[in-house]
Design brief:
The complex is a heterodimer.
Chain A (H helix, E strand, L loop, with lengths): L7 H5 L7 E6 L7 H12 L4 E5 L4 H10 L9 E5 L13 E2 L6 H14 L2 E4 L2 H8 L3 H14 L3 E7 L5 H10 L2 E10 L1 E12 L8 E7 L3 E5 L2 E5 L6 H8 L2 E3 L2 E2 L2 E2 L3 E7 L2 E7 L7 H7 L3 E9 L6 H11 L6 E6 L9 H7 L8 E3 L8 H13 L2
Parallel strand pairs in A: 1-6, 1-7, 2-3, 2-5, 3-4, 5-6, 11-16, 11-17, 17-18, 18-19
Antiparallel strand pairs in A: 7-8, 8-9, 9-10, 12-15, 13-14, 15-16
Helix pairs in contact in A: 4-6, 6-7
Chain B lengths: L1 H5 L7 E6 L5 H14 L3 E6 L4 H10 L5 E5 L15 E3 L5 H17 L4 E6 L1 H7 L2 H18 L2 E7 L5 H10 L2 E8 L2 E8 L3 E10 L2 E4 L2
Parallel strand pairs in B: 1-6, 1-7, 2-3, 2-5, 3-4, 5-6
Antiparallel strand pairs in B: 7-8, 8-9, 9-10
Classes of the chains: A alpha/beta, B alpha/beta.
Bound molecules: guanosine-5'-triphosphate and magnesium ion.
C-alpha cells in the first residue's frame, strides 16, 4: 500500500500490510486532507477502504473528497458513520455506530471494518478520544493488533490539541510510522510542513517538506523561499553565496542588477534564497515571490549607521504582510563596527527583534542567521 | 456607544460575556462586534445558535460590510447549504475546521493591514456537544492565537448551563469577563479584567442596541 503523499512515498516506500500510520496534525493546520489523500490513492489502486468519520457528517466528508477532485464513488469504498447518531440523525452508510460514545459498540463496528477492508482510515482519532475518553487508546492497541492479523493497514488522523503528554506519547508509541503535519506560526499560520517523526520499516532522515493544498489536487510539496534584502553594498550577495551550495548573481561593476539566487539544503529544509538588489526598489520583486516567501533577512553593514534608515524602510516594505525577519549585522570583522545591541537601538527596533552578528566574507555566523530565522518560523 | 461608555474598549484580547438566558447577551455581542467593524476592524462571527443569514442581514442593515460568518448551525443540523462569499459552514464538532478557517481569515485581514474582531456565540453549544476538556483544549489554542495576532474576541457563555468548575476554568482562559444579570425586570452588567473593574450598572435594550444608564 502507499502513503500517497509527495516525498513521503519516496522516503517510506510501500507501507507493509499490518502496519499503522498516524498523522499528528497541528490543530491550526488543514491537515485532515492527509489521511483522505492516503485513502484515495489506495482506493484508486484497487484496495477496499473504509473511512471512520467522527467529527462531521458523511455528506460533508464526501464533499471534502470532491473538493480535491477525488472520486470515491466505488463499491470498494465505505464509511463507518460514528457521527450521525451523535447529532440525532439517521445514517445510510454501510457501517453505522448507533451510540458513538459506547466504546464497545464502536469497537464491534471497527473490528468488522478491519476484517472486511484492506485499509481503514480514521478521519479523526482525537475526536473519538474527546467523545469517549482516553480509554480509547487501549482499543487503538487492539485495532492495530487486529489489523496485523488481518493484513490490513490502519491510518489515523490525530489532531494534536494540548492533550496530556502521556496521551501523545502513547499514540506515537502505538504507531509504526508517525508523520507530523505542522504549522509555521508567526502571528498567523504562514505556511505548513510535514515530516516523518518515526518509522519502523524504513530508516528516515529528519526532513521537513513545505506544502500547499491544491483544489483539485491535494497535498503538493514546495520549496520555501527566503528573501535577503538590505541597503546598497551591505553584503547581500556575499551572504547568499556564503550560505548556498549553489548560487548565481548578475553583478555589474560590483553591484547587483538582478536577483541573487541561491539554494541550500539545511536541517531537512530545501530552501531557495533570493537576494534583492540594494539600489532599486524591490516591491515588484516581493510581488513576484508572492505568497511563497516565508521570511526575510535584512543584511546591514555594521559600520554604516547612515544606511540604517534605508534598511528600516526596506524592512517595513518586506514585512508588511506579516513575514518574520532577522537582521544580519554584517562586516563584524571590521574594527569599530557596531554591536548587535547598538544596531538594534540605533534602528529603533522592537525588543523582540532578532539581530545576529555575522561576517559574510569569512562565513562566520552566517548559519546563525539562518538558524535564527528558521527558529522564528517553526520554533514557536 | 456601549463599549465606549464602559471604557473597556480593546483592553482584553479575550472577553467572556456571561449571563442568564434572555438577558441580552446576543444583542450585546452583536453590537460590540458591529462597533469594532465600524471602527475599521475586520470581523469574524462564529455562530452556533442564530442562523448565519440572520446575522449577516442584521450587520448589513447596520451599514457594515467587512465581516465573515462561520456558520456552525446548518451543518450540525445536517442541512446541506453551500458556502457563500460571506458565510462559511462547518460542524460544531469540527474544531480543527474552525481554527483553520479563522486562521485563513486572519491572514486575509492582515494582508489588508486590518485588525480583527471575533465574536463567538456561543461556547455553551460547544460544551453541549463536546466534553469540557475538549472545549478547553480548543479554547487554549484559539485564545492564544487571538492574543498573538493582536485581535480581540468576545465569547458568550450561558449562565446556569455549566457547573462552577467549568466556568472557573473558562475564566482562567480569558482576560476579561462581562457579567449580565436580571433582577426585578431590571438588567445589570459588570465588568472585570486584570486592570479595570466596573461594578454593576443598569442597562436597557432599545431598538436592537444596548444602552447603559448613567
Ligand atoms: N569586511 C567585510 N567586507 C564584506 C563582508 N561582506 C561583504 N563585504 C564586502 O562588501 C562589498 C559589498 O558586498 P556585496 O555582497 O556585493 O554587497 P551587496 O549588498 O550585494 O551589494 P549591492 O547588490 O550592490 O547592493 C564587497 O566588497 C564585499 O567584499 C564582510 O563580512 N566583511
Ligand atoms: Mg548584491
Amino acid at each position: 500500500m502507499k502513503i500517497g503523499i509527495p516525498v513521503l512515498d519516496e522516503l517510506l516506500g510501500d507501507v507493509p500490510r499490518g502496519k499503522t500510520v498516524t498523522y499528528l496534525i497541528d490543530p491550526e493546520v488543514e491537515g485532515d486532507v492527509f489521511p483522505l489523500q492516503t485513502l484515495y490513492e489506495n482506493l484508486e489502486n484497487g484496495n477496499s477502504c473504509a473511512l471512520i468519520v467522527s467529527s462531521m457528517s458523511p455528506e460533508i466528508i464526501k464533499n471534502r473528497f470532491r473538493e480535491f477532485g477525488w472520486d470515491i464513488e466505488k463499491d470498494s469504498f465505505s464509511i463507518v458513520d460514528a457521527y450521525s447518531a451523535y447529532v440525532g440523525a439517521s445514517s445510510e452508510e454501510k457501517y453505522f455506530v448507533k451510540n458513538p460514545a459506547d466504546l464497545k459498540e464502536l469497537d464491534r463496528v471497527i473490528t468488522r471494518a478491519i476484517e472486511e477492508n484492506d485499509l481503514i482510515v480514521f478521519n479523526s482519532l482525537s475526536t473519538i478520544i474527546d467523545i469517549s475518553g482516553e480509554d480509547v487508546i487501549e482499543f487503538v492497541n487492539g485495532w492495530n493488533k487486529y489489523a496485523m492479523l488481518n493484513d490490513a493497514v490502519i491510518v489515523y488522523g490525530f489532531t494534536s490539541w494540548p492533550y496530556a503528554q502521556e496521551v501523545l506519547e502513547k499514540i506515537k508509541e502505538l504507531s509504526n510510522t508517525v508523520i507530523s503535519v505542522g504549522g509555521i506560526h508567526h502571528r498567523v499560520v504562514l505556511g505548513h510542513y510535514y515530516g516523518i517523526l518515526k518509522s519502523d520499516w524504513k530508516e528516515v532522515k529528519n526532513k521537513a517538506v513545505l506544502f500547499k493544498l491544491l483544489r483539485p489536487g491535494g497535498v503538493r510539496a514546495y520549496i520555501p523561499k527566503i528573501l535577503v534584502t538590505g541597503p546598497f553594498n551591505s553584503g547581500k550577495t556575499t551572504f547568499v553565496h556564503s550560505i548556498s551550495t549553489k548560487a548565481v548573481s548578475v553583478d555589474r561593476l560590483g553591484t547587483t542588477v538582478a536577483l541573487d539566487h541561491g539554494h541550500v539544503d539545511y536541517k531537512g529544509f530545501s530552501i531557495d534564497i533570493f537576494g534583492t538588489p540594494g539600489q532599486e526598489r524591490f516591491n515588484p520583486v516581493l510581488k513576484i515571490l508572492g505568497g511563497e516567501a516565508l521570511g526575510v533577512i535584512v543584511v546591514v553593514d555594521s559600520t554604516k549607521p547612515e544606511d540604517f534608515p534605508r534598511a528600516k524602510e526596506m524592512l517595513a516594505e518586506t514585512t508588511r504582510f506579516g513575514l518574520p525577519y532577522v537582521i544580519a549585522a554584517n562586516k563584524q570583522d571590521i574594527d569599530g563596527c557596531l554591536s548587535p545591541e547598538e544596531i538594534k537601538r540605533k534602528m529603533n527596533l522592537p525588543d523582540d527583534a532578532v539581530v545576529v552578528p555575522m561576517s559574510a566574507r569569512s562565513k562566520e555566523g552566517v548559519y546563525d542567521v539562518l538558524d535564527a530565522l528558521l527558529n522564528l518560523l517553526i520554533g514557536g | 456607544m456601549l463599549t465606549g461608555s464602559l471604557s473597556i474598549n480593546g483592553k482584553p484580547s479575550n472577553l467572556m460575556i456571561i449571563g442568564p438566558p434572555l438577558v441580552g447577551k446576543t444583542i450585546l455581542i452583536r453590537n460590540m462586534f458591529f462597533e469594532k467593524i465600524n471602527e475599521g476592524f475586520g470581523g469574524i462571527f462564529i455562530t452556533t445558535r442564530s442562523p448565519a443569514e440572520e446575522i449577516a442581514d442584521w450587520l448589513s442593515s447596520q451599514g457594515v460590510d467587512d465581516f465573515k460568518i462561520i456558520d456552525c448551525v446548518s451543518k450540525t443540523t445536517m442541512q446541506d447549504l453551500p458556502d457563500e462569499p460571506k458565510i462559511k459552514r462547518l460542524s460544531v464538532m469540527d474544531l480543527t475546521g474552525i481554527t483553520v478557517k479563522v486562521n485563513e481569515l486572519f491572514k486575509e485581514y492582515l494582508k489588508d493591514e486590518k485588525k480583527v474582531v471575533v465574536a463567538f456565540d456561543s461556547l455553551s453549544t460547544l460544551l453541549m456537544y463536546l466534553n469540557e476538556q475538549t472545549v478547553l483544549r480548543f479554547l487554549h489554542v484559539f485564545s492564544s492565537r487571538i492574543r498573538t495576532t493582536g485581535a480581540v474576541a468576545f465569547y458568550i457563555v450561558e449562565e446556569g448551563m455549566h457547573d462552577e468548575k467549568t466556568i472557573a476554568a473558562l475564566k482562567q482562559l480569558f482576560n476579561g469577563v462581562l457579567e449580565l444579570k436580571d433582577e426585578n425586570n431590571q438588567r445589570f452588567l459588570r465588568y472585570m479584567d486584570t486592570s479595570v473593574r466596573i461594578d454593576w450598572k443598569e442597562f436597557e435594550v432599545q431598538d436592537n442596541a444596548i444602552v447603559v444608564k448613567t
